[in-house]
Amino acid sequence: MEHIGFLSFGHWGPGQGSHTRTAGQALLQGIELAVAAEDLGVDGAFFRVHHFARQQASPFPLLSAIAARTARIDIGTGVIDMRYENPLYMAEEAAATDLISGGRLQLGISRGSPEPARQGASAFGYVPRDGETDADMARRHTEAFRIAISGAGVAEADPRYAGGATGLLPVQPQSPGLQERIWWGAGSRKTAIWAAEQGMNLMSSTLLTEDTGVPFHELQAEQIRLFRDAWQAAGHSHRPRVSVSRSVLPIVDDEDRRYFAGSALRDSRDQVGIIDGLTARFGKSYVGEPDRLAEELAADTAVQAADTLLLTVPNQLGVDFNAKLLGTVAQHIAPALGWAPAKG
Questions:
Q1: Across 102-106, 116-120, 269-273, least confident range
Q2: Is 0.85 topped by the overall pTM?
Q3: Which of 60, 203, 243, 331 minimizes the number of CB atoms within 10 Å of its CB?
């Protein structure tokens, strides 16, 4: 385990006990938590992207603000739903954010998960072409985005206004190296293989849209192995990265006990359900005393197979609580996984 980061779903609303009641609070607290995480030696600040919901929806202003307040921590998404994106505009925003950060952007993208709006991408102006599925459209947008950030020309020059230039013009700005820091959020073994063939890093969540009857961590470890095998077979020149997400809720004081001691999350079992019409296996949450959680995570085969662990944080409990949670993990749990805090 080389890297540990947090993954915030960016929830906000007036619910009982919420410390994050408005969108403005969610954004500002996201910045402050990233600053606190960097001070703790944590390696990454990642944010989920959802549309038509009280969650983070436009990540680049938030990530740019974090970049301006920090010096070392990676910033990223987990994940952007590519059905909703204008690929060239996204390429401009991603490059600008990466330049502000000094090359720290780790951009997680995917076909996306179910959203509150029926056919929400169509409200943004994006509809699958004849014969396309939503997944096909997301991959088409992804291909156009990756071409754009590679520096390839994408629009015909008008010599009258381009200083006499002809041929195809690339979008600007460009941020060299960004194309190797794109992650695909894969929900199955098949999509993990596809991501490897495309040369994208693997971002695997707390659920997989398939079930073979084995524990979640074993199925996810198989997904990671298939990804690495496909990467090697494809002959890519750069080293791939792999992240897994886990809900880790250590109990160290009365505040933690009040929130989590009686929680159903302590059931500590995988769950199987239906998502998007597919049978899905959901990984268990890790709730308890730090020494026990360290042992359980050390026995999690997918955590051991990945190089990056993203901790899903209960962001509505506020910055102080989540900084305490991250500090507990960094000090008492992560070293058992082979991790050491970043310096400087």
A1: 269-273
A2: yes
A3: 331
Which residue matches tokens 């606190």? 36
Q: Are 67 and 34 in contact (CB under 8 A)?
A: no
The predicted model gives 91-111 an average pLDDT of 98
Structure tokens at 286: 């890790």
| Residue closest to 342 by CA, chosen among 32, 42, 45 | 42
pLDDT at 243 over 80: yes
Helix boundaries (H) for the chain: 23-39, 59-69, 87-101, 120-123, 134-149, 189-198, 216-234, 254-256, 290-298, 301-305, 319-328
Q: Is 215 helix (H, G, I), strand (E, B) or coil?
A: coil
Cβ atoms of residues 47 and 10 within 8 Å: yes
Q: Tokens representing 223?
A: 């997904």
Amino acid at 286: Y
Tokens standing for residue 142: 């992804």
Q: How far apart are CA 151 and CA 218, in angstroms?
A: 39
Taking the C-alpha atoms of residue 65 and residue 279, their distance in angstroms, rounded to an integer, is 39
